[in-house]
Amino acid sequence: MTTTPMPVRTVDGVTLPAPGSWRIDPGHAEVAFVGRHFLITKVRGRFTGVRGAVAVAEAPADSSVTVDIDMTTVDSGDATRDEHLRSADLFDVERFPTATFRSTEVRWHGTQGTVTGELTVHGVSRSVELAAEFRGHVRDPWGGDRAVFSATTTIDREAFGLTWNMVLDSGSLLVSREITVEIEVETVLEPH
Length: 192
Prior knowledge:
Layout: E1 8-11, E2 14-17, E3 20-37, E4 41-56, E5 64-75, H1 79-86, E6 98-109, E7 112-121, E8 124-139, E9 145-156, E10 178-189
Antiparallel strand pairs: 1-2, 3-4, 3-10, 4-5, 5-6, 6-7, 7-8, 8-9, 9-10
Protein name: Lipid/polyisoprenoid-binding YceI-like domain-containing protein
Family: Belongs to the UPF0312 family.
Pfam family, one: YceI
């Protein structure tokens, strides 16, 4: 007789996902970004084409994350701005259609941790550190087990070759260099 593995476990008194491959559900995943326009107003955007997986290990620190982002799926709520974001001035999606993240280190305590990895955008790779959190587990109506994660980081877009900008009469810049990245993903436990 086979037994269904438990989707969660208790580690140091907190509930965490069970070891296994947790595939990102593209329909319930968002990689969002927030920049400043005129260095004052927040401008938000997101990528809807997100794929990847969280490989949860027996020891949480041995876990890993892989993510691929379809840069053509950028959506900032303004079609003209989105076309500019896709253009050679910025993301240059014809040459660099995919951004990737590959974790290199996971430090975990309770339901929160730090995931360090190589982020590649616009053909440039840089090490970034994500503040990550396990938000919980649910069983969906179709019998799938879902683990929900969120993460945030701040990057310097110019470090990735995204240098387009305009100098205003005041001497300040049109678009901020610092971009906040906000990630929300549902993952589905893949069968053994």
